[in-house]
Amino acid sequence: MSSISNVENLSPQTIRRLVREQEDLIKDPPEGIRIVVNDSDVTDIQAFIDGPAGTPYAGGRFNVKLVLGKDFPHTPPKAYFLTKIFHPNVASSGEICVNTLKRDWKPDLGIKHILLTIKCLLIVPNAESALNEEAGKLLLEEYDHYFQRAQMITEIHAPIPKSMKIGREEDSSDGPLAKKHAGNKTIEKKRISKDKRKTLKRL
Q1: Which pTM value belongs to this model?
Q2: Minimal CA–CA distance to 36: which of 26, 50, 24?
Q3: Is 90 helix (H, G, I), strand (E, B) or coil?
Q4: Catalytic residue IDs
Q5: Out of 45-59, 138-152, 179-193, which region has the weakest mean confidence (pLDDT)?
Q6: 28, 47, 111, 203: least buried by Cβ within 10 Å?
Q7: CA distance 143 to 145
Q8: Which helix (H) or strand (E) holds 79?
Q9: Where in 9-73 does DSSP place strands (E)?
Q10: Cα(133)–Cα(165) distance, rounded to whole angstroms?
Q11: 166/153 Cα distance (integer angstroms)
């Protein structure tokens, strides 16, 4: 995964577009997504995505990075998880496989759309385009095992410090980052089971 600046390879129009999109994401960020701006390199695009509720990634925060090629936006960027994650569509290198960044790519798609697509991938994984074959097989054949494994990796590698909650989710007992009080464990398990069945129906 390249970390070299790509500013000199992009047109002034593309640079202005990237700056505008990042400014918009700072002013009005999607729920559970926070972009990290590099003032010295607008092509260094990173963000933190909070694991959605009802998934094994809930309670975790994942650092993702977009790598822009010299032909961007005519060719899609590559996306990577910098945070370790157990997911069918994420390779061991962190590379993300999603149709939006492949055959469904359109030059007018923006950073916000890409980040929302990655977040949706945490809710509905696609076992048919698995980069992690083990995770893909477990998703289809042993969902409980998949859920437990992904949840364990999340708890180890992507815990959210209490001082770093994103926006209004910090105080929401129903949000993806809700605190798990001991007295609510039974309720939490029932909710996860219900959401899990909904997810399975989507697959």
Answers
A1: 0.77
A2: 26
A3: strand
A4: 97
A5: 179-193
A6: 28
A7: 5
A8: strand 78-81
A9: 33-36, 45-50, 61-67
A10: 32
A11: 21
